Amino acid sequence: MSAIQRSVLWIAILASFVAFLDGTVVNVALPAISDELGGGLTTQQWVVDAYLITLGALILVAGSVSDAYGRVLVLRIGLIGFGIASVAIAAAPTAEFLIIARAVQGAAGAFLVPSSLALITSNFTGPAQGRAIGTWTAMTTTAMIVGPLIGGVFVDLLSWRLVFLINVLPIAATLILLARGGIRDVRKPDASVDWLGAVLCTLGLGAMVFALIEQPNLGWASPAIWIPLVAGIALFTGFVLRQRSVRSPILPLDLFRVRNFWTGNIATLFIYGALSLNGFVVVVYLQQGAGLPATLAGLASLPMTILLILLSSRVGALSGRWGPRLFMTVGPITMGIGALLLLTVGTEFSYWWQVLPSMIIMGLGLSITVAPLTSAILGAIESERSGIASAVNNAVSRVAGLLTIAALAAIVGGSLDLDGFHRAAIVTAVLMIAGGIVSFLGIRNPSHATTPDDPAV
């Protein structure tokens, strides 16, 4: 690598690490946040969903913004915005202030990962690009491992507020590298940004999520619920209709004419909605219901991450040989079975016998699912459009989590006690199994793939 390439790689790693780390530490801090700032389950839902609303909506437009204004400039703005929002969250005097700061953080975070990958693809070519992306993946994956541990230790020994200041050091290091790296920014003079579409998408999602989160408190008959719900549906419908006619759509609808693309995204909606629900419920219940400290609650799902790291590469190779359909069917159903094992959790709590078996089975299912799902979706679209296809799939996964967390109170019956925990486990299993069924019925293997009984190609 040249000196500039090394700088580019470290900038991409650190910028993405910030976004990945924040996603893994926040669930661990939720009980402590609601204990200090109040609001109970509703506050916990909004802390997660305020971030996902802006992240899910704006990640679609990130590519257009980077093309129009330059990747380095957009990355710098995203880092500064993320850092300021993190400091604001750490200093939040009220739950409402924190939730607004989380929405700002999500908006900034929407530009970090896409811009980071765009920097790599524009500065590396051929085998070097593959190695750079592999290094980026390995380094950012460590955030999934260290995030819950660091977050739990900070919550238990220091303060939940300091959890959100973990980002400041890597952000400062990345900004220094950007200033010294000598990276030439590239802009496309003919690029345009559909800001109106982004606004319609954000407001539509936000209004619908508001209705879903507040409905258990106010009831469906309240104008404060049904008016935002109807308005949100209308705004989001307007966003979709606009994408049919705007010159540079942030959601190209023609992608959904490809069978594996639209089927894979429906499967993503079920699977990642279930993963978000499970990740939220397990970490929060283990603290509030089972009485575990934040550190141990954060480490509860570590077996899933370890299995994903160990097995996903091998499963990806097998998926390329046999096709993704079998794996996308078996994987989510296996995760559904793992979720049902959480029904063994009782008043006499034991992590080793009641939670760990579920985490292992779900980890196996996740390892079987992730690489084939990604390859099925991106492999269905021509390579020159893989960036927008990836952004759409990423946005779908974020919106899936957004919706399941918004509906959490209705799922658990108002409170996350043992009965609510069991209800969430059942809904998680149903969503996972639905993802497997959708994959079985809709996904088609590429013509070059073989079935397990066929001779290898």
Automatic annotation (TrEMBL):
Organism: Microbacterium salsuginis
Ranges for domain Major facilitator superfamily (MFS) profile: 8-447
Localization in the cell: Cell membrane
Classification via Pfam families: MFS_1
Residues passing through the membrane, by range: 7-30, 50-66, 73-93, 99-120, 132-154, 160-183, 195-213, 219-241, 262-286, 292-313, 325-345, 351-378, 399-418, 424-443
Cytoplasm keyword on record: no
Protein name: MFS transporter
Predominant location category: membrane
Annotated membrane topology: Multi-pass membrane protein
Keywords, sorted A to Z: Membrane, Transmembrane, Transmembrane helix
Protein's UniProt keywords contain Transmembrane: yes
InterPro entries reported in the protein's UniProt record: MFS (IPR011701), MFS_dom (IPR020846), MFS_trans_sf (IPR036259)
